[in-house]
Amino acid sequence: MPPVLPTPPCCPLISPATPMPASTFFTEFRAMTGFTGRFFREGFRPRYEWLELLNQCYAIGYQSLPLVGITSFIMGLVLTLRLRPTMVQFGATSWIPVMVGLTIIQELGPIITGLMVAGKVGSSIGAELGSMRVSEQIDAMEVSGTNPFKYLVVTRILAATLMVPILTLLADAVGLGACYLGINLQGVTSVALFTNNILGRLTFGEVLPAVVKTFFFGFAIGLIGCYKGYHASKGTQGVGVAANSAVVLSSLMIFLLDLVAVGVSTAFGLI
Amino acid sequence: MESTVPPAPAAALPTPAPAAEVVLTVAGISKSFGDNHVLKDFSLTLRRGENVVVLGKSGSGKSVLIKCIIGLLKPDAGTITVLGQPVATLSHVALDALRAKVGFLFQSNALYDSMTVRENLLFPLRRHWLADHQGQEDQLVLQALDDVGLPQTIDQLPAELSGGQRKRIALARTLIVPPEIILYDEPTTGLDPVTAREIDQLIRHVQQKYHASSLIISHDMSCVRLTSDRVILLSEGRSYAEGTYAELLASTDPIVHAFFE
C-alpha cells in the first residue's frame, strides 16, 4: 500500500503582484529619500568622475539612440496615418501636422522616450549594480580607495538626467519626420509648409514644460535603477529583482511625474 | 584559552621577531547583526612581516572581522588600529589613503566583470595616481602579472579565466599598489587542491618579496599549515586558541583538536 503523505498546509501563492506591506513601503520610501539626499551631498563635491560620466553618457545616450529613434518613427507614422481618416471627415487635414506635432512634442515624445530608456537603461543599471553588489565588486571598489557611490551612482544618475532630454528632442524630430512622411504617403505637402504649420503655432510656453519634465524623467530613471541595484541582495535572484523593479518603478514614476508636470503647467497657465 | 608557548622547532618558515613593529591591532571588538552576536570581545595583533591565520568554522565571523578591519563594516564596540591609525575615526580621505597601504583579496575575487585584466589592474593604480605615464602603468601591470605568473592573460576578461587564474589576477590587483598589509578572505575556497597549494605558495612568495604582513582567513588546514606563522582559532565570536600551527596541532583541547585532526 502506498504511504499516505500528509496534506500540505494551505498557503497563499506569492505572485509578483503581491502588494507591499505599508511598513515596507515607508521603510523603502525613507531609504530612497536618504539615497537621493546622498546623491545631492556627494554629487557636487570633488572628486568628480568626469571620464566615467562621459562613458555613461555614451552608454545611456548614444546606445539608446536606435531604440528611441525607431519607436519615435513608428509612433509619428502610426499617429499620422490613424488620425488622417478622421481629419478628412472633418475637412481639417491641414491641422494634422499641428495636432501630431503638439502631441509628440508635449506628451508622446517625452513619455515614449522615458519608457524606452527606463526599459533599456533602468533595467541595465539595476542589473549591473546589483551584480556588482552581490559579487562584492562594489566593496572591492571601496577598498581600492574609490567612492563607489560617486563612481557608480552619481555618474549614472547625472548621465540619465542629461541624456533623456537630448534623446527626447531627437525623438521629437524623428517623430515629426515620420509625420511628414505619413502625410506625403497620401498627399503632397512641402517641408516648408509642414514646418511653418507646426512652428507657427507652437509657443515657447508649450515646449518648455515638455523639455523640463524630461530632466526629471531621466533623474528618476537613473535614481531608481541605481537605488535598486546598489541595494540588491540575496544573490542572483536579487539581481533579477533589482532589474525588474527598476523598470516597473521608473515606468510608473514617469507617468506620475507627467501628471505632476501637467498639473504644474496648468497651474501656471502654460497649457 | 590555549596559552602561547615558544615557537615550535618544526616551523620551517621564518617567524618574525617578537619585537617587530605591530601593524594591526584589533582590541576587544564586538559585532552583532540583530540577535546574532558574531564577534564578542575579539582581539588580535599582527606584526610587520608576519602571516597570521584566523581559523574558524563557517559563519564564525571571520569575514566580518576582516571587513571591520578594512572599514567596510563598523564594529559595535572595540577599536581597530591599522598602521597606527584608528579606522573608526578616520575621515573618508584618510581612510582611502590608508586603504592604499592595505590589500584585500576577496573570497569571490571581486574582479570587475566589464573590464579586462589590464583594466582591472589599472583601476586601483589610477585611483592612487601611482604612475606618471602610460609606459610606467604598463610596466607596473606586467610586473604584477609576472608576480602571479599570468602575463599572458592581460587582455582577457575575467569570465574567460579559470577559478585559479581569477584568484591570481585578484592577487595581482592587490599587489599593484604595493601593500604593507594584505587581508586574504578564504584564498583557497572553491579551488582544487593543486591550485589551492599554488595559491598558498604564492601567498608565501608575496610575503617574502613585498615584506608585507598578512592576515589570512581560512578553514583550509593545508592553507593554514603552509602559510601561517601564527594561528588564531575563532570560536563563538572569541579568540579561543592561539599559537603556531605545530602548537595547536599538539593541543588536546577538543575544539582545537576538531580542526587539526
Key features?
heterodimer, A: 271 residues, mainly alpha, disordered N terminus, B: 261 residues, alpha/beta, Rossmann fold, six-stranded mixed β-sheet, four-stranded antiparallel β-sheet, 9 helices, 10 strands
Order of helix and strand elements from N to C terminus of chain A:
HHHHHHHHH
Largest protein-protein interface: A-B, 15 and 22 residues
Helical proportion of chain A? over 70%
Topology-level CATH name of chain B: Rossmann fold
Termini separation of chain B = 19 Å
Tally the beta strands of chain A.
0
- On the 0 to 100 scale, the average pLDDT of chain B is 86
Number of helices of chain A: 9
Distance between the termini of chain A: 78 Å
Count the domains of chain A: 1
Give the biggest sheet of chain A.
none
Using DSSP, what is the number of strands of chain B? 10
* Outline type of chain B: globular
Q: What characteristic shape of chain A results from the CA principal axes?
A: elongated
Outline the low-pLDDT stretches of chain A.
1-17
Oligomer: heterodimer
Description:
The complex is a heterodimer of chains A (271) and B (261). Chain A has helices spanning 22-43, 50-60, 65-89, 96-134, 137-143, 148-185, 191-199, 204-230, 235-267. Chain A is mostly helical. Chain A has one domain. Chain B is an alpha/beta fold and 261 residues long. In chain B, the strands form two sheets. A six-stranded mixed sheet of chain B has the order 6-7-8-3-9-10, sandwiched between helices. In chain B, strands 2-1-4-5 form a four-stranded antiparallel sheet, covered by helices on one side. In chain B, helix 6 links the parallel strand 7 and strand 8. Chain B is globular, with a radius of gyration of 18 Å. The A-B interface holds A 128, 131-132, 135-137, 139-147 and B 67, 70, 72, 92, 96-97, 99-100, 102, 104, 106-108, 110-114, 123-124, 127-128.
